[in-house]
Amino acid sequence: MTPLILWFRRDLRLDDNPMLAAAAATGRPLIAVFIADGSVTDIGAAARWRYGEAVEAFTRRLAERGGHLVLRRGPALAVLRALVAQTGADAVWWGRLYDPQARNRDTAIKTALGADGIEVRSFHGHCLVEPWQVETGDGGAFKVYSPFWRAVSARGVEPPLATPERLTFHAGQPRSESLAGWRLGAAMNRGAPVLAPHAQVGEDAALARLDRFLAGPIDRYRTDRDFPARNAASGLSENLTYGEIGPRRIWHAARAIEAAQPGHGGVEHFRKELVWRDFAQHLAYHSPRILTEAWRPEWAAFPWRGDGDVAETWRRARTGEPMVDAGLRQMYVTGVMHNRSRMIVASYLTKHLLTHWKIGLDWFADCLTDWDPASNAMGWQWVAGCGPDAAPYFRIFNPATQAEKLDETGAYRTMFIAEGQADPPAEAQAYFDAVPRAWCLSPDAAYPAPLIDRKAGRERALAALKTMKNRIAP
Q1: Helical H segments across 27-70, by residue range
Q2: Which H/E stretch holds residue 5?
Q3: pTM of the model
Q4: 297-469: which CATH number, 3.40.50.450, 3.40.50.1240, 3.30.70.930, 1.10.579.10?
Q5: For 55-77, how does the pLDDT look when each residue is reduced to its tens digit (9 = 90+)?
């Protein structure tokens, strides 16, 4: 009955946690640990702040069950070896992640601890299905979403696991560092108090959020999900990012509604979004280059523009295109951005402004509380045109047309664009409370003129595509 070390990462929950369920079944004394290595300390400001909030909530969750979360900072292998030496533990378990940084780290740790005579096990739980559990007809990885969706649907998703009834924690818990001492939110400066009211942190909040969504908004999901002001989305991306809720729990809760109401269109569309998230992990596992370079190699020839004044104007949400600026300001104020707004914002940067998708990817990584390396990279490359997409055309979103279609009353733009309003909403004013003072922005300033004529921007993007094709022509 030697102690068993459970290394929690992006699985900060008790419900449907395969690692925790298996550990509880052994009856062994458990040592729960969270390690602030580079995968925590080197991520963007908003995600790092939100990670700290998630860890704090999970610490309380374990305390309710008589447990303790040991906090340690430093290289994960060194920390785990020190804990093994201090406690006499002979096994280390963790939940699997699929991005190349995590996989390389975990492989090295597994090899090193195995050489030390320590049992190492990793567990499923971050996705609906493991990236290698679905294959194309010829046994390869999927490159297009639609057949991936069909494969996952045909295979099915395992039912979620209940929270263990009994957890036994090691009596001699090692010392823990101070979460406050880590200062994970330091880079947020004055932005953290603005973001905080919009975050729904922890397992209880995540499960309650799911219940609220299934009790009403899911009925409108199919028809309203692309309209940013209609609040038809679940908001669960934030909680899924830190593992405060398991994707299998969400999937089967939605399927229960589908079973009770056959033909419920909203449920299937919602489940497709869960599989879209899995598709990102599938691509990151099988094609890790998607995180750092064009997934379609020929797009290395596209004449992207680098960083500069134009990109900085976009970052500051002063493009003069209200639908674009509203999305960017929503992200800065709330930590998230509506999915359709992400497409519009990304298209404007990469098509109308011809700016490299990596610049947008990095900005989202710094500002999103639901940031995930695989989803972020896949989303940006999908919009830019260099990622996995079955569409045979060059997609360019017209921000004005999108606004007319998806924000017909102007409610979304009004909520986040303060300039020109005598009494702007709190969310619109909060943007100016959150941004760096060095930006010298004021809600009383005039709203800027568009950076570029929409038609001219579209024509320039099409000309750039032609240039690329000429460069790669045989």
Answers
A1: 38-41, 45-64
A2: strand 4-8
A3: 0.96
A4: 1.10.579.10
A5: 999 999 999 999 999 999 999 99
